[in-house]
Every structure is written in C-alpha cells, then in structure tokens.
Amino acid sequence: MTTISERTQFPQVLLVDDNSGDARLMRMAFKKTDLHAHVIVAETAEIALAILRREGEYADTPHPDLILVDVNLPRINGPTFLKLIKADPILRLIPALVFSSSNAESDLTESYRHYANGFITKPFSFDDYIDVAKHIVEYWFQFVQTPKVEIPATNDPA
User: Has residue 92 been placed in a domain?
Assistant: First the structure.
C-alpha cells in the first residue's frame, strides 16, 4: 500500500467544473503547493467521463489520482456524475471530492449519498484556494493510502 505522493511526483487531478474562473484559481493554487499536481479540467461531466474512460481523443490522457467535481454542472450534475463513476468497478477506486460553491445541506447529503469521498465548499479568496489545495495535497496525496488505478483506453486494439 502506498500514498499517491509515493507513487508519483506529479499527481493528476481531474477537475470537473464549468466555471473557468474557479478552474483557473484551482490550477494556480495547486502550483503553490509542495507537490505540484497537474490539473486536467473538464467543463462537463460528459467530457470527464470520456477522460476517465479514456475514450477517443482522451485515450492518452493520464488517469487521475483524484477527482474534484462541482455540484452544479450542465446536463449531468455532480451527484449524478458521482453515481455513474462509483457504479464502475475501476473508476470507483479513484477518490472523488465535491468542490462546490453550494453550501446547501441537500447538496451535501446528495453528494455523500452518491459516494463522494468528501465535500469542500469553494473559498472566496485566492489565499483560501491555496489553503484548500495544500490540505488536499497533505491529506489525499501524502497521508491517505489509496490503490493504484489503471484505466485501459477503450480504443486499444485487442
């Protein structure tokens, strides 16, 4: 058993968020941590699913070590996205945290009902984004032991 930081110097984070400003702040915040995670942004759950399943143009995309997903997404919302990935025997092994501007109890409950591994309310200042990124790195990458997940590309020749 190992931690993510023991397996890689550059953890991969899949951020599923349709707000480009929030995505930019989170990318910048991870660059300010001791362990420089590479943040891949998917603007929709559909794109995130294609990335996770390594479909089509995403066949060579590195698999994520952690998923951050917003609650309020167009078409497929965050809790439904969680339900889909947690139903998959491979994808369910990737820790998935809700990262949302919502602080509604119903969103929190619904996220955990669909097997979120955590719920973080988006901060207001960039300094607070850095604090969130540092806490994620410290806990999810350096403290918690997680399984190594290998996601095969769906268009690999058999």
Answer: yes
